[in-house]
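INFO batch 0412 | record 1 of 1 | parsing
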Amino acid sequence: MKLRRPLLIFVSLTVIMCVVVFQVFAENRVLHLATTTSTDNTGLLDYLAPAFESSTGIELRWVAVGTGKALALGRNCDVDVLMVHAPAAEAEYVSEGYGVARHPFMYNDFIIIGPKSDPAGIRGKTVTEALNVMHRNDVHFASRGDDSGTNRREIQLWKETGLGVPDRESWYIQTGQGMLNTITIAAEWDAYTLTDRGTFIKYEVNWKGDPPLVTLVEGDHALRNQYSVIAVNPALCSQVRSDLAEEFIQWVLSPEAQRLIGEFTLMGNKLFIPNGGME
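INFO prediction complete | emitting tokens
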């Protein structure tokens, strides 16, 4: 039996409206994240995002910058949630009301890398001993110089030596770049640098396991590198998707996401250790 023309038009319009509503709903399920470069450079977010979208229906879009810039994006209400690794700065950000709460969810560690020949002779030393040797001998050291979480930790480590933070010294190279680029610049100068282990493993992969720079200082308690997620405060940023941010945080802390983080490897090496809700 043929449908009458008015009924056919009604059915067609109904289908079109359903499609439009679905598209609008899908477009509204987009979460904007500001993250540190290490979670992007290592491929962790590319690995986690599809699982997050499959579980929640939320599309994750992110911009990878240093932690200082990520916190600034949050203060400016440009993103919904942050993934950062500078605990003191994060605590200040939350205490000032810009973030709702800080949720630790994984960690790795920082290491000092340098030329295989190790001209400064820092292999196996403590962080303080290694930095003292480099400072005393004017050995080239590449700093990110970008207010990232890694740069903030480096500055704190220099302060703890009692020698002060280098600035305009000829041996101290401030790159203003992300971690992978800074490692590349350090290699060009036969310099040392501080990096998170995850990004260095990615660098090793790029060099097929035989990079010009190697790990020289590691295992010091001062080198622990904690990552946290923070929802931007909707009381200060009314347009942020706090509902989606909360879903993301709960998912990151969930057994599913924690398992995925623990299983994420490169060259058989774990890059991050899950510790949801603990520090």
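INFO post-check: Residues 109-223 form a domain with the D-Maltodextrin-Binding Protein; domain 2 fold (CATH 3.40.190.10).
INFO record closed
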